[in-house]
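Database export, one record per block. Field names are fixed; values are copied verbatim from the stored entry.
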Amino acid sequence: MIDLPTDLPADIVPLSWLLGVWEGTGVIDYEADGAAFQGEFAHRVSFSHDGGDYVNYAASAWLLGDGESRTPLVAETGYWRLARPAAAVDAGPALLPASAARPAPRTADDVEALRNAEGGFDLEVAIVHSDGISELYLGQVRGPRIDLATDAVIRPSSAKVYTAATRMYGLVDGHLLWAWDIAALGGELASHASARLARAE
């Protein structure tokens, strides 16, 4: 059973089941550019909030070898939020303050008005990889399932070719299951990695 905080900002309640630190293992299985990439990895993912209308995201992964050996893979950081139009009461861009006084905090009714035609909530997810790649995902959360697809990928000249991705997250029997498909190294969008994570104590 998952204990959810009762004092969350209304905007992140649909994502509240993600909050916490998750750890476990997964498998990599991807073929591109005439090479096959396979292996088992350890994964640690953190979803947190600091009172804002978004969820903070951080993840690290290590390729598992013989015995206790672990080789670092990419680390990620980012922000997850419900998609809604920016208003005068919102700060930004950059350090610009809001141009109108903020009324009372947004309510569950305000968030419910954002529900889409499929019964979920549209999401915007920004993720930056430690190798410099930045992704903007669009998707939706419907109960304990999230589906995302890249809307944009920005890659510095020093990074390897990576053009698109999809991710799926689901809460199943108290575990966080996820799958990540990528188009990289000249390959088409295909299954890349998946994992099963348990909530860390």
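Remark 1: The chain has one helix and ten strands.
Remark 2: The radius of gyration is 18 Å.
End of record.
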